[in-house]
Amino acid sequence: MFLRLGFITFAVVASVAFAVDVDKNADLVAKLRLANTNLDRMTLLPDDADWLFDFTKQDKYTFSPGGVINANSATFPAATGQGMTMSMLNLGPCSMLPPHLHPRAANYVVAISGTTQTYMIAENGARTVTEILQAGQMTIFPQASIHTMMNIGCENAQLISALNSDDTGTTNLANAFFSFPQNISGTVIGGGLNAQAIYGRVPSFGTGSSAGPHDCIAACAKKGKMIKREPQARNE
What we know:
By secondary structure, this protein is an alpha+beta fold. 22% of the residues lie in helices and 24% in strands. The longest helix is centred in the N-terminal third of the chain and has 9 residues, at 5-13. This is Cupin type-1 domain-containing protein.
């Protein structure tokens, strides 16, 4: 069986899936990709403002439940052709990123704050690698590996992700798997389940983060520590 049932279940219970980035300036990106030289590219980005990306000013910058903010060719045209995406990962208490993979990039993740548990499966037959990241620690998700992460604390967690492509792509396991016909998906999970009915419960793409397991949320609430702090507005 090419997918583990437990991992599929983990993906299904996620309440929000990874967001799809919208092109900020598709025409400019097309011109940047066609530029013959770096000097030609520089003329297409004439202003200092073209080279500045503010993660905190993006729509997906939230901790309720969280968000994935990507600086890539779609959202930050200056990144076009640079071979890299920088992402800020915000996770509110108990929030998670659903299991997913990046088909065109390896992923280096560094914890800035909070306590985040990660899981990674590189391929069939490989063991599940799990880490608990705290500030100053990092892990690697190899290209196309399945991975997920969850804030296991009752305070916000923030991480920085560096990926070696300006167009990494993201494939969510639940959204992809349960979109197959019933005779495929139903057979893979052992039969007896209406996979298409499950697919109807898989959410569409959102900010990139979702509320996590109920037991974590309940434990934090019991401790009186279920705190979700939205970032304070910065002075202009």
